[in-house]
Amino acid sequence: MKRFNTAGPCIEEMHYMVPPEPRLPEARTLVEQNAYFVLHAPRQTGKTTTLRALARRLTAEGRFCALHFSCEEGEVAQDDFAEAQRSVLTSIRQMATVYLPPELRPPARWPEAPESKLLSVGLEQWARYCPRPLVLFFDEIDALRGESLRSVLRQLRAGFPQRPAGFPASVALCGLRDVRDYKAASGGDPTRLGTSSPFNVKLESLRLGDFSAADLRALYAQHTAETGQAFAEDALARAFELTGGQPWLVNALAREVVEKLGVVPPVTITIDHLEEAKERLILARQTHLDSLVARLHEPRVKRILEPLLAGAVLAGDAYDDDLQFVRDLGLVAQGAPARVANPIYREVIVRVLASGIEQQITAEPRRFVLPDGRLDLRLLLEEFAAFWKEHGEVLDSGIGYHEVAPQLVLMAFLQRVVNGGGFVDREYGVGRGRIDLCVRWPYRLPDGSRTWQREALELKAWAPKKPDPLERGLAQLDEYLDGLGLNHGVLAIFDRRPDAAEIPDRTSFAEARTPKGRPVTVLRG
After folding, report:
1. 270 by DSSP, 3-state: which?
2. Residues 373 and 444: beta-carbon distance below 8 Å
3. Alpha-carbon distance 255 to 251, whole Å?
4. Burial class of residue 283, CB neighbours in 10 A (0-12, 13-18, 19+)
5. Is a pLDDT exceeding 90 seen at residue 121?
6. Which of 75, 139, 239, 406 is most buried, by CB atoms within 10 Å?
7. Domains of the chain
8. Cα 107 to chain center, whole Å?
Protein backbone atom coordinates (compact mmCIF):
# COMPACT_ATOMS: atom_id res chain seq x y z
CA MET A 1 0.00 0.00 0.00
CA LYS A 2 1.24 3.47 -0.84
CA ARG A 3 1.70 6.14 1.80
CA PHE A 4 1.69 9.91 2.16
CA ASN A 5 5.35 10.90 2.05
CA THR A 6 6.90 13.36 4.52
CA ALA A 7 10.57 12.38 4.28
CA GLY A 8 12.74 12.84 1.20
CA PRO A 9 11.85 12.60 -2.48
CA CYS A 10 8.72 10.76 -3.55
CA ILE A 11 9.07 7.32 -5.11
CA GLU A 12 6.24 6.45 -7.45
CA GLU A 13 5.99 2.81 -6.32
CA MET A 14 5.85 3.77 -2.64
CA HIS A 15 4.10 7.12 -2.32
CA TYR A 16 1.00 8.98 -3.36
CA MET A 17 2.31 11.80 -5.50
CA VAL A 18 1.26 14.61 -7.79
CA PRO A 19 2.76 14.08 -11.29
CA PRO A 20 6.03 16.02 -10.98
CA GLU A 21 6.80 17.31 -14.47
CA PRO A 22 3.57 19.30 -14.96
CA ARG A 23 4.52 21.27 -11.84
CA LEU A 24 7.49 22.75 -13.73
CA PRO A 25 6.65 22.82 -17.45
CA GLU A 26 9.15 25.61 -18.21
CA ALA A 27 12.15 23.45 -17.28
CA ARG A 28 11.94 21.21 -20.35
CA THR A 29 11.75 24.23 -22.64
CA LEU A 30 14.84 25.75 -21.04
CA VAL A 31 16.76 22.49 -21.39
CA GLU A 32 15.89 22.34 -25.08
CA GLN A 33 17.20 25.91 -25.43
CA ASN A 34 20.55 24.86 -23.90
CA ALA A 35 19.84 27.32 -21.10
CA TYR A 36 21.39 27.71 -17.68
CA PHE A 37 18.68 28.45 -15.13
CA VAL A 38 17.83 28.50 -11.44
CA LEU A 39 15.07 26.61 -9.66
CA HIS A 40 14.33 27.71 -6.14
CA ALA A 41 11.62 26.92 -3.61
CA PRO A 42 11.30 26.34 0.13
CA ARG A 43 12.33 23.01 1.60
CA GLN A 44 10.14 19.97 1.04
CA THR A 45 8.08 21.39 -1.78
CA GLY A 46 9.06 18.73 -4.34
CA LYS A 47 12.14 20.21 -6.03
CA THR A 48 14.17 17.01 -5.86
CA THR A 49 11.25 14.80 -6.88
CA THR A 50 10.55 17.02 -9.88
CA LEU A 51 14.16 17.25 -11.10
CA ARG A 52 14.81 13.55 -10.66
CA ALA A 53 11.74 12.72 -12.72
CA LEU A 54 12.70 15.22 -15.44
CA ALA A 55 16.29 13.93 -15.62
CA ARG A 56 15.14 10.34 -16.03
CA ARG A 57 12.60 11.27 -18.68
CA LEU A 58 15.09 13.33 -20.70
CA THR A 59 17.65 10.53 -20.66
CA ALA A 60 15.05 7.87 -21.53
CA GLU A 61 13.89 9.88 -24.54
CA GLY A 62 17.36 9.53 -26.06
CA ARG A 63 18.21 13.16 -26.88
CA PHE A 64 20.08 14.16 -23.74
CA CYS A 65 22.24 12.70 -21.01
CA ALA A 66 20.51 14.23 -17.99
CA LEU A 67 21.57 13.71 -14.40
CA HIS A 68 20.30 14.97 -11.06
CA PHE A 69 22.71 14.98 -8.10
CA SER A 70 23.14 16.74 -4.77
CA CYS A 71 25.86 19.14 -3.61
CA GLU A 72 24.86 18.71 0.03
CA GLU A 73 27.90 16.68 1.08
CA GLY A 74 30.13 19.56 -0.01
CA GLU A 75 28.81 21.71 2.83
CA VAL A 76 31.44 20.39 5.26
CA ALA A 77 34.20 21.72 2.98
CA GLN A 78 33.29 25.30 3.89
CA ASP A 79 35.94 27.50 2.15
CA ASP A 80 38.06 24.56 1.00
CA PHE A 81 37.00 24.95 -2.63
CA ALA A 82 39.11 22.04 -3.88
CA GLU A 83 37.51 19.61 -1.44
CA ALA A 84 34.05 20.97 -2.31
CA GLN A 85 34.68 20.35 -6.02
CA ARG A 86 35.87 16.81 -5.34
CA SER A 87 32.72 16.20 -3.33
CA VAL A 88 30.53 17.44 -6.20
CA LEU A 89 32.41 15.30 -8.74
CA THR A 90 32.05 12.27 -6.46
CA SER A 91 28.30 12.87 -6.20
CA ILE A 92 28.08 13.12 -10.00
CA ARG A 93 29.89 9.81 -10.45
CA GLN A 94 27.77 8.04 -7.82
CA MET A 95 24.47 9.15 -9.35
CA ALA A 96 25.68 8.44 -12.89
CA THR A 97 26.58 4.87 -11.89
CA VAL A 98 23.04 4.33 -10.64
CA TYR A 99 20.97 6.20 -13.22
CA LEU A 100 22.94 6.36 -16.50
CA PRO A 101 23.83 3.56 -18.93
CA PRO A 102 27.59 2.85 -19.18
CA GLU A 103 28.04 4.65 -22.50
CA LEU A 104 26.78 7.95 -20.99
CA ARG A 105 28.70 7.90 -17.74
CA PRO A 106 31.67 10.19 -17.01
CA PRO A 107 35.21 8.92 -17.61
CA ALA A 108 36.57 6.26 -15.26
CA ARG A 109 38.86 8.87 -13.70
CA TRP A 110 38.47 12.62 -13.63
CA PRO A 111 41.40 14.31 -15.41
CA GLU A 112 44.22 16.02 -13.55
CA ALA A 113 43.61 19.74 -13.14
CA PRO A 114 44.57 22.72 -10.97
CA GLU A 115 42.60 22.83 -7.72
CA SER A 116 40.77 25.92 -8.92
CA LYS A 117 39.46 24.09 -12.01
CA LEU A 118 38.75 20.53 -10.93
CA LEU A 119 35.04 20.79 -11.70
CA SER A 120 35.25 22.64 -15.01
CA VAL A 121 37.98 20.41 -16.45
CA GLY A 122 36.05 17.30 -15.43
CA LEU A 123 32.82 18.54 -17.00
CA GLU A 124 34.66 19.62 -20.16
CA GLN A 125 36.07 16.14 -20.69
CA TRP A 126 32.76 14.43 -20.00
CA ALA A 127 30.92 16.77 -22.39
CA ARG A 128 33.42 16.11 -25.20
CA TYR A 129 33.25 12.32 -24.95
CA CYS A 130 29.54 11.89 -24.12
CA PRO A 131 27.52 11.00 -27.26
CA ARG A 132 24.67 13.28 -26.11
CA PRO A 133 24.47 16.86 -24.78
CA LEU A 134 24.89 16.93 -21.01
CA VAL A 135 22.09 18.28 -18.80
CA LEU A 136 23.07 18.62 -15.14
CA PHE A 137 20.79 19.47 -12.21
CA PHE A 138 22.88 20.73 -9.23
CA ASP A 139 20.51 20.13 -6.30
CA GLU A 140 21.18 21.71 -2.86
CA ILE A 141 23.62 24.12 -4.53
CA ASP A 142 23.26 26.55 -1.64
CA ALA A 143 24.67 23.94 0.76
CA LEU A 144 28.03 25.17 -0.57
CA ARG A 145 29.37 28.26 1.16
CA GLY A 146 31.89 31.04 0.77
CA GLU A 147 34.85 30.31 -1.51
CA SER A 148 33.45 26.87 -2.40
CA LEU A 149 30.20 28.26 -3.78
CA ARG A 150 32.00 31.13 -5.51
CA SER A 151 34.42 28.71 -7.19
CA VAL A 152 31.67 26.42 -8.51
CA LEU A 153 29.58 29.30 -9.83
CA ARG A 154 32.53 30.96 -11.55
CA GLN A 155 33.60 27.73 -13.25
CA LEU A 156 30.09 27.18 -14.57
CA ARG A 157 30.01 30.74 -15.81
CA ALA A 158 33.43 30.40 -17.48
CA GLY A 159 32.47 27.16 -19.23
CA PHE A 160 29.11 28.47 -20.44
CA PRO A 161 30.38 29.72 -23.87
CA GLN A 162 31.81 26.26 -24.70
CA ARG A 163 28.43 24.50 -24.54
CA PRO A 164 27.08 22.19 -25.88
CA ALA A 165 30.12 20.37 -27.37
CA GLY A 166 32.72 21.36 -24.77
CA PHE A 167 30.65 21.87 -21.63
CA PRO A 168 27.23 20.86 -20.25
CA ALA A 169 24.56 22.10 -22.64
CA SER A 170 22.09 22.97 -19.87
CA VAL A 171 22.59 23.45 -16.15
CA ALA A 172 20.00 24.01 -13.42
CA LEU A 173 21.01 25.23 -9.97
CA CYS A 174 18.44 24.15 -7.43
CA GLY A 175 18.13 25.37 -3.85
CA LEU A 176 16.23 27.49 -1.37
CA ARG A 177 17.26 30.82 -2.80
CA ASP A 178 17.10 32.66 -6.05
CA VAL A 179 20.41 33.49 -7.72
CA ARG A 180 20.17 37.08 -6.50
CA ASP A 181 20.91 35.78 -3.00
CA TYR A 182 23.96 33.70 -3.97
CA LYS A 183 26.19 36.72 -3.58
CA ALA A 184 25.61 36.73 0.17
CA ALA A 185 26.17 32.99 0.49
CA SER A 186 29.39 33.22 -1.50
CA GLY A 187 30.86 35.94 0.69
CA GLY A 188 29.34 39.15 -0.65
CA ASP A 189 27.54 41.88 1.26
CA PRO A 190 24.26 40.31 2.45
CA THR A 191 22.55 43.70 2.73
CA ARG A 192 23.11 44.56 -0.94
CA LEU A 193 22.04 41.53 -2.87
CA GLY A 194 21.11 43.35 -6.06
CA THR A 195 24.73 43.86 -7.11
CA SER A 196 26.67 41.72 -9.56
CA SER A 197 26.13 37.99 -9.16
CA PRO A 198 28.85 35.33 -9.54
CA PHE A 199 26.38 33.43 -11.77
CA ASN A 200 25.15 35.93 -14.35
CA VAL A 201 24.56 33.52 -17.24
CA LYS A 202 21.21 32.23 -16.04
CA LEU A 203 18.34 32.71 -18.46
CA GLU A 204 15.48 32.27 -16.03
CA SER A 205 14.77 31.88 -12.32
CA LEU A 206 11.95 29.43 -11.77
CA ARG A 207 10.08 28.96 -8.54
CA LEU A 208 8.35 25.69 -7.81
CA GLY A 209 4.96 26.64 -6.45
CA ASP A 210 2.76 24.99 -3.85
CA PHE A 211 -0.01 22.55 -4.69
CA SER A 212 -3.22 23.95 -6.07
CA ALA A 213 -6.56 22.91 -4.59
CA ALA A 214 -6.91 20.55 -7.56
CA ASP A 215 -3.49 19.02 -6.81
CA LEU A 216 -4.50 18.38 -3.19
CA ARG A 217 -7.75 16.75 -4.29
CA ALA A 218 -5.93 14.59 -6.82
CA LEU A 219 -3.38 13.47 -4.21
CA TYR A 220 -6.01 12.60 -1.62
CA ALA A 221 -8.09 10.88 -4.32
CA GLN A 222 -5.22 8.42 -4.83
CA HIS A 223 -5.64 7.35 -1.20
CA THR A 224 -9.38 7.02 -1.70
CA ALA A 225 -8.91 4.94 -4.85
CA GLU A 226 -6.46 2.60 -3.12
CA THR A 227 -8.20 2.18 0.24
CA GLY A 228 -11.82 3.18 -0.32
CA GLN A 229 -11.52 5.83 2.40
CA ALA A 230 -13.09 9.11 1.32
CA PHE A 231 -12.45 12.67 2.44
CA ALA A 232 -15.57 14.70 3.17
CA GLU A 233 -16.01 17.59 0.75
CA ASP A 234 -15.67 20.23 3.46
CA ALA A 235 -12.60 18.38 4.80
CA LEU A 236 -10.87 18.77 1.42
CA ALA A 237 -11.56 22.49 1.47
CA ARG A 238 -10.33 22.77 5.06
CA ALA A 239 -7.15 20.82 4.27
CA PHE A 240 -6.27 23.30 1.54
CA GLU A 241 -7.12 26.24 3.81
CA LEU A 242 -4.93 24.95 6.64
CA THR A 243 -1.92 24.10 4.47
CA GLY A 244 -2.12 26.73 1.75
CA GLY A 245 -1.08 23.89 -0.56
CA GLN A 246 2.40 23.56 0.99
CA PRO A 247 3.32 20.05 -0.23
CA TRP A 248 4.89 18.75 2.99
CA LEU A 249 1.95 19.98 5.06
CA VAL A 250 -0.56 18.49 2.61
CA ASN A 251 1.08 15.08 2.99
CA ALA A 252 1.77 15.40 6.72
CA LEU A 253 -1.81 16.36 7.55
CA ALA A 254 -3.24 13.34 5.73
CA ARG A 255 -0.56 11.02 7.11
CA GLU A 256 -1.31 12.16 10.65
CA VAL A 257 -4.96 11.22 10.18
CA VAL A 258 -4.56 7.83 8.52
CA GLU A 259 -1.41 6.59 10.29
CA LYS A 260 -1.21 8.36 13.65
CA LEU A 261 -4.83 8.96 14.57
CA GLY A 262 -5.74 5.53 13.23
CA VAL A 263 -8.76 6.64 11.19
CA VAL A 264 -9.13 3.51 9.10
CA PRO A 265 -11.37 2.71 6.13
CA PRO A 266 -14.26 2.84 5.62
CA VAL A 267 -14.51 5.77 8.07
CA THR A 268 -14.74 9.04 6.13
CA ILE A 269 -12.12 11.66 7.02
CA THR A 270 -13.81 14.79 8.39
CA ILE A 271 -12.89 18.33 9.39
CA ASP A 272 -12.67 17.24 13.03
CA HIS A 273 -10.03 14.66 12.09
CA LEU A 274 -8.02 17.33 10.27
CA GLU A 275 -8.26 19.78 13.18
CA GLU A 276 -6.94 17.17 15.58
CA ALA A 277 -4.18 16.25 13.14
CA LYS A 278 -3.23 19.92 12.77
CA GLU A 279 -2.89 20.34 16.53
CA ARG A 280 -0.73 17.23 16.76
CA LEU A 281 1.55 18.46 13.97
CA ILE A 282 1.97 21.83 15.65
CA LEU A 283 2.73 20.31 19.05
CA ALA A 284 5.09 17.68 17.62
CA ARG A 285 6.96 20.30 15.55
CA GLN A 286 8.49 17.76 13.21
CA THR A 287 11.74 18.40 11.34
CA HIS A 288 10.15 20.51 8.62
CA LEU A 289 8.47 22.83 11.13
CA ASP A 290 11.53 22.93 13.36
CA SER A 291 13.69 24.07 10.43
CA LEU A 292 11.39 27.09 10.04
CA VAL A 293 11.30 27.77 13.79
CA ALA A 294 15.10 27.89 13.88
CA ARG A 295 14.97 30.92 11.59
CA LEU A 296 12.63 33.09 13.64
CA HIS A 297 15.33 35.07 15.45
CA GLU A 298 17.56 35.62 12.43
CA PRO A 299 17.70 39.41 11.90
CA ARG A 300 16.43 39.26 8.29
CA VAL A 301 13.48 37.09 9.31
CA LYS A 302 12.65 39.12 12.40
CA ARG A 303 12.70 42.39 10.43
CA ILE A 304 9.78 41.08 8.39
CA LEU A 305 7.86 38.90 10.84
CA GLU A 306 7.77 41.31 13.78
CA PRO A 307 5.90 44.12 11.97
CA LEU A 308 3.92 41.52 10.03
CA LEU A 309 2.61 40.02 13.27
CA ALA A 310 1.77 43.50 14.51
CA GLY A 311 0.00 44.40 11.27
CA ALA A 312 2.38 47.32 10.77
CA VAL A 313 3.73 48.63 7.48
CA LEU A 314 7.03 47.11 6.39
CA ALA A 315 9.77 49.60 5.58
CA GLY A 316 13.52 50.07 5.50
CA ASP A 317 16.47 49.89 3.11
CA ALA A 318 16.58 46.10 3.09
CA TYR A 319 12.80 45.62 2.94
CA ASP A 320 12.60 44.10 -0.56
CA ASP A 321 15.53 41.75 -0.04
CA ASP A 322 14.42 40.64 3.42
CA LEU A 323 10.87 40.06 2.23
CA GLN A 324 12.08 37.97 -0.69
CA PHE A 325 14.33 36.03 1.68
CA VAL A 326 11.45 34.99 3.97
CA ARG A 327 9.38 34.17 0.90
CA ASP A 328 12.17 31.93 -0.37
CA LEU A 329 12.15 30.20 3.02
CA GLY A 330 8.42 29.63 2.60
CA LEU A 331 7.44 31.55 5.76
CA VAL A 332 5.64 34.30 3.85
CA ALA A 333 3.36 33.74 0.89
CA GLN A 334 4.02 35.08 -2.58
CA GLY A 335 2.06 38.13 -3.72
CA ALA A 336 0.69 41.16 -1.94
CA PRO A 337 -0.10 41.99 0.75
CA ALA A 338 2.60 40.16 2.68
CA ARG A 339 1.17 37.44 4.91
CA VAL A 340 2.35 34.30 6.66
CA ALA A 341 2.11 31.44 4.18
CA ASN A 342 -0.63 29.37 5.83
CA PRO A 343 -2.58 28.97 9.09
CA ILE A 344 -0.38 26.13 10.36
CA TYR A 345 2.76 28.28 10.03
CA ARG A 346 0.90 31.15 11.74
CA GLU A 347 0.14 28.89 14.68
CA VAL A 348 3.66 27.52 14.89
CA ILE A 349 5.28 30.96 14.76
CA VAL A 350 3.14 32.46 17.50
CA ARG A 351 3.24 29.41 19.74
CA VAL A 352 7.02 29.24 19.52
CA LEU A 353 7.45 32.93 20.25
CA ALA A 354 4.99 32.70 23.15
CA SER A 355 6.01 29.28 24.47
CA GLY A 356 8.19 30.66 27.27
CA ILE A 357 5.34 32.88 28.41
CA GLU A 358 2.80 30.07 28.30
CA GLN A 359 4.96 28.01 30.65
CA GLN A 360 4.60 30.77 33.27
CA ILE A 361 0.81 30.86 33.15
CA THR A 362 -0.69 28.84 35.98
CA ALA A 363 -4.38 29.46 35.19
CA GLU A 364 -6.39 26.25 35.45
CA PRO A 365 -8.42 25.87 32.23
CA ARG A 366 -11.40 24.21 33.93
CA ARG A 367 -12.04 27.38 35.95
CA PHE A 368 -13.18 29.12 32.80
CA VAL A 369 -15.82 26.57 31.77
CA LEU A 370 -19.40 27.49 32.66
CA PRO A 371 -21.92 24.91 33.96
CA ASP A 372 -23.46 24.61 30.49
CA GLY A 373 -20.03 23.85 28.96
CA ARG A 374 -19.43 27.25 27.33
CA LEU A 375 -16.24 29.25 27.82
CA ASP A 376 -16.41 32.19 30.25
CA LEU A 377 -14.48 34.65 28.11
CA ARG A 378 -15.02 37.59 30.45
CA LEU A 379 -13.48 35.70 33.37
CA LEU A 380 -10.60 34.65 31.14
CA LEU A 381 -9.94 38.28 30.17
CA GLU A 382 -10.10 39.39 33.80
CA GLU A 383 -7.55 36.74 34.75
CA PHE A 384 -5.34 37.88 31.89
CA ALA A 385 -5.62 41.50 33.05
CA ALA A 386 -4.50 40.50 36.55
CA PHE A 387 -1.61 38.50 35.11
CA TRP A 388 -0.62 41.42 32.86
CA LYS A 389 -0.68 43.89 35.73
CA GLU A 390 1.61 41.68 37.79
CA HIS A 391 4.04 40.47 35.14
CA GLY A 392 3.60 42.80 32.15
CA GLU A 393 6.60 45.05 32.74
CA VAL A 394 9.00 42.11 32.97
CA LEU A 395 7.48 40.23 30.04
CA ASP A 396 7.30 43.33 27.86
CA SER A 397 11.02 43.96 28.19
CA GLY A 398 12.09 40.33 27.94
CA ILE A 399 10.43 39.18 24.71
CA GLY A 400 12.64 39.23 21.61
CA TYR A 401 9.78 40.35 19.38
CA HIS A 402 9.28 43.47 21.50
CA GLU A 403 6.94 45.18 19.02
CA VAL A 404 4.27 42.52 19.59
CA ALA A 405 5.10 41.51 23.18
CA PRO A 406 1.68 42.33 24.72
CA GLN A 407 -0.15 40.59 21.89
CA LEU A 408 2.03 37.50 22.32
CA VAL A 409 1.32 37.43 26.06
CA LEU A 410 -2.45 37.60 25.49
CA MET A 411 -2.29 34.92 22.81
CA ALA A 412 -0.22 32.71 25.11
CA PHE A 413 -2.82 33.16 27.85
CA LEU A 414 -5.65 32.27 25.49
CA GLN A 415 -3.75 29.25 24.18
CA ARG A 416 -3.01 28.01 27.69
CA VAL A 417 -6.70 28.07 28.60
CA VAL A 418 -8.18 26.91 25.29
CA ASN A 419 -5.56 24.29 24.42
CA GLY A 420 -6.88 20.75 24.55
CA GLY A 421 -10.50 21.74 24.04
CA GLY A 422 -10.86 24.51 21.51
CA PHE A 423 -8.87 26.46 18.96
CA VAL A 424 -7.50 29.97 18.50
CA ASP A 425 -7.49 31.06 14.85
CA ARG A 426 -5.26 34.02 14.01
CA GLU A 427 -5.20 36.49 11.15
CA TYR A 428 -2.62 39.22 10.62
CA GLY A 429 -1.05 40.97 7.68
CA VAL A 430 0.87 44.02 6.54
CA GLY A 431 -0.80 47.39 6.93
CA ARG A 432 -3.85 46.17 8.82
CA GLY A 433 -2.61 47.49 12.16
CA ARG A 434 -4.26 44.68 14.09
CA ILE A 435 -4.35 40.98 14.92
CA ASP A 436 -7.72 39.25 14.62
CA LEU A 437 -8.40 36.23 16.79
CA CYS A 438 -11.32 33.83 16.72
CA VAL A 439 -11.65 31.52 19.72
CA ARG A 440 -13.63 28.37 18.90
CA TRP A 441 -14.82 26.33 21.87
CA PRO A 442 -16.90 23.13 21.61
CA TYR A 443 -19.80 22.41 23.96
CA ARG A 444 -22.98 20.34 24.10
CA LEU A 445 -26.50 21.64 23.61
CA PRO A 446 -29.30 20.40 25.91
CA ASP A 447 -30.24 17.80 23.30
CA GLY A 448 -26.71 16.37 23.43
CA SER A 449 -25.58 17.63 20.04
CA ARG A 450 -22.16 19.24 19.71
CA THR A 451 -21.78 22.86 18.64
CA TRP A 452 -19.18 25.63 18.70
CA GLN A 453 -18.99 28.82 20.71
CA ARG A 454 -17.10 31.49 18.77
CA GLU A 455 -15.60 34.63 20.25
CA ALA A 456 -13.91 37.40 18.26
CA LEU A 457 -11.02 39.47 19.58
CA GLU A 458 -9.13 42.25 17.88
CA LEU A 459 -5.69 43.23 19.19
CA LYS A 460 -4.28 46.68 18.47
CA ALA A 461 -1.31 48.76 19.62
CA TRP A 462 -1.37 52.47 20.45
CA ALA A 463 1.82 53.51 18.69
CA PRO A 464 3.93 56.57 19.60
CA LYS A 465 2.82 59.83 17.96
CA LYS A 466 -0.46 58.23 16.87
CA PRO A 467 -4.02 58.95 18.07
CA ASP A 468 -5.98 56.60 20.29
CA PRO A 469 -6.87 53.63 18.02
CA LEU A 470 -10.23 53.04 19.73
CA GLU A 471 -12.42 54.51 16.98
CA ARG A 472 -10.51 52.82 14.17
CA GLY A 473 -10.44 49.56 16.12
CA LEU A 474 -14.20 49.52 16.61
CA ALA A 475 -14.76 50.06 12.89
CA GLN A 476 -12.29 47.30 12.01
CA LEU A 477 -13.91 44.97 14.54
CA ASP A 478 -17.24 45.57 12.80
CA GLU A 479 -15.69 44.27 9.57
CA TYR A 480 -14.30 41.20 11.32
CA LEU A 481 -17.62 40.46 13.05
CA ASP A 482 -19.40 40.79 9.70
CA GLY A 483 -17.19 38.05 8.29
CA LEU A 484 -17.77 35.77 11.28
CA GLY A 485 -21.49 36.46 11.57
CA LEU A 486 -21.16 37.47 15.24
CA ASN A 487 -22.90 40.32 17.07
CA HIS A 488 -20.36 41.04 19.83
CA GLY A 489 -16.59 41.16 20.27
CA VAL A 490 -13.55 42.19 22.28
CA LEU A 491 -11.12 44.98 21.42
CA ALA A 492 -7.76 44.87 23.23
CA ILE A 493 -5.62 48.02 22.98
CA PHE A 494 -2.04 47.95 24.26
CA ASP A 495 -0.42 51.33 24.87
CA ARG A 496 3.11 51.34 23.39
CA ARG A 497 3.80 55.05 23.87
CA PRO A 498 6.94 55.76 25.91
CA ASP A 499 5.08 58.26 28.12
CA ALA A 500 2.19 55.90 28.90
CA ALA A 501 1.28 55.16 32.51
CA GLU A 502 2.68 52.05 34.18
CA ILE A 503 1.00 48.81 33.11
CA PRO A 504 -0.88 48.27 36.43
CA ASP A 505 -2.30 51.80 36.25
CA ARG A 506 -3.44 51.68 32.63
CA THR A 507 -4.93 48.17 32.49
CA SER A 508 -8.71 48.45 32.59
CA PHE A 509 -12.06 47.36 31.08
CA ALA A 510 -14.77 49.44 29.44
CA GLU A 511 -17.82 48.87 27.26
CA ALA A 512 -18.34 50.39 23.81
CA ARG A 513 -20.29 49.87 20.58
CA THR A 514 -19.13 49.49 17.02
CA PRO A 515 -20.42 51.86 14.32
CA LYS A 516 -23.08 49.21 13.54
CA GLY A 517 -24.16 49.07 17.17
CA ARG A 518 -22.56 45.80 18.24
CA PRO A 519 -21.55 45.63 21.94
CA VAL A 520 -17.81 45.44 22.53
CA THR A 521 -15.70 44.81 25.62
CA VAL A 522 -12.67 47.10 25.48
CA LEU A 523 -9.56 45.89 27.31
CA ARG A 524 -6.74 48.38 27.68
CA GLY A 525 -3.28 47.36 28.81
Report:
1. coil
2. yes
3. 6
4. exposed
5. yes
6. 239
7. 21-207 (3.40.50.300), 213-284 (1.10.8), 358-524 (no CATH)
8. 41
